[in-house]
Amino acid sequence: MKTNMLARSFLLPLIAIAVFCQPGFAKKRERVPISPKILQAKSVFLDCDCRKEMAGSVRSALPEVLDWGRYQLARDRNHADLIFLFSMNPYLGDYFTRDGPDRRPAIVDYTILTVIDGHTGEALWSSWKRWGYMLVSRASRALVRDLRVAVEGKLHLDSESPSR
Which residue of 7, 28, 61, 94 has the fewest C-beta atoms within 10 A of its own C-beta? Predict the structure, then answer.
């Protein structure tokens, strides 16, 4: 009985330390800054640099973009202020210069959304979900929602700041 109580009194603090010291648990999630270009943009083109497992990304994200109503859909990338690029690999800044789709090896474990300046190819914002290939559609929708929350939060914060 004493051994059992000693074990509990010793193990409980160790478990608490292990839980609270995990990376990201104690830290607040860092806010990704929102580029003024995202706030000023009027149009967006949705694209997927994907293999067949991720082909539904754009189709799944489209209702979220339409529901948001912030951007007009562009008919092609040449007429868009922003490009929402869904991919499995991090963006290399080569959207306008590479020849064809991304050929880097990738496992459909991550769904990445990169918001790209439609005129320069500069990455303006990026986030990802590690939800696996079975949840690509849900991850794509969630990433657009994350961007929406970040943009609307930025607009809300800016409207609250005192004018000079």
Answer: 28
